[in-house]
Amino acid sequence: MNLCSVPDLRDLLIRHGLSPSKRWGQHFLVSERVVSSILASVPPRTQSILEVGPGPGVLTAELSSQYKVTAVEIDPIAVSALTESAPRAKVIVGDALCTDLAVVLGELPEPRMIVSNMPYNITGPLLTSFTALRKQVAGMIVMMQKEVAQRILAQPGDREMGSLSVMLQSRFEISKVIDAPAGAFYPPPKIDSCVLQLTPIQTGWADAFDQFHERIVRQGFAQPRKTLANNLKAHSFDPSVEGWNPTIRPHQLTIANWETLARALELRTAP
Predict the structure, then answer these.
(1) Average pLDDT over residues 141-149
(2) pTM for this prediction
(3) Phi (first) and psi of residue 180, to 5 degrees
(4) How many domains does the chain have?
(5) Which helix (H) or strand (E) holds 139?
(6) Of 178, 111, 171, which is closest to residue 142 (Cα–Cα)?
(7) Strand ranges inside 8-130, DSSP E
(8) pLDDT of 178
(9) Which pLDDT band, with edges at 50, 70 and 90, does 112 fall under?
(10) Residues 127, 218: one domain?
(11) β 68-73/48-52 pair status
């Protein structure tokens, strides 16, 4: 691996007139250990990768040496640096939240993966967008703020468990790839990060139920410290009738409990 060092990266940025932007939440990955762990986590049969937020391309250069890569980058100056660091990658200039990623993925050979060092300020929306694409990919390798990763991995009974935990654990097998401390980036952020691997679960859910489940989970956690019954008043949820503990709170339910609850409420609201 011929990874770009911090001095090399600085030189690359200078050549292209690029400096890390607070507007885009840019912290560029420079850790060989983290890059190596991400590469090692890509399943062996993978043919292509959609990378979101490649920055100047330190990770992109390594990915594109092994796979067909399409990268979506919002910063046009970073795109200039990408053409030098990762010339084999196809680059789309645009906001990933406003780009039809389903179409982009459809142009890549299968099996395909999503890889992303997600900007902290749009981690939630990006994860929601990626989740909607899970039927098109073999998996995802995503980096995020460590605190968000801990919430995603939280188990029933843990007060850290929230709607994002349930949404993702219901739809993916999730494992931690590696912690990425602040020093793994240039410039170092004020917080640590973590890389997670998400492998889609074949739930067999119809799209309508998938959307209903999401709505119930979000409403169930609307006020996380209140009881589940309080949060689901709009659905006339009566825990005593359903056989639930009336004082149960959303973080105490298991992943299976949430599916059971959503199916019961869906039947109740069916025409």
Answers:
(1) 97
(2) 0.92
(3) -125, 95
(4) 2
(5) strand 139-145
(6) 178
(7) 28-29, 48-52, 68-73, 90-93, 112-117
(8) 98
(9) very high
(10) no
(11) parallel
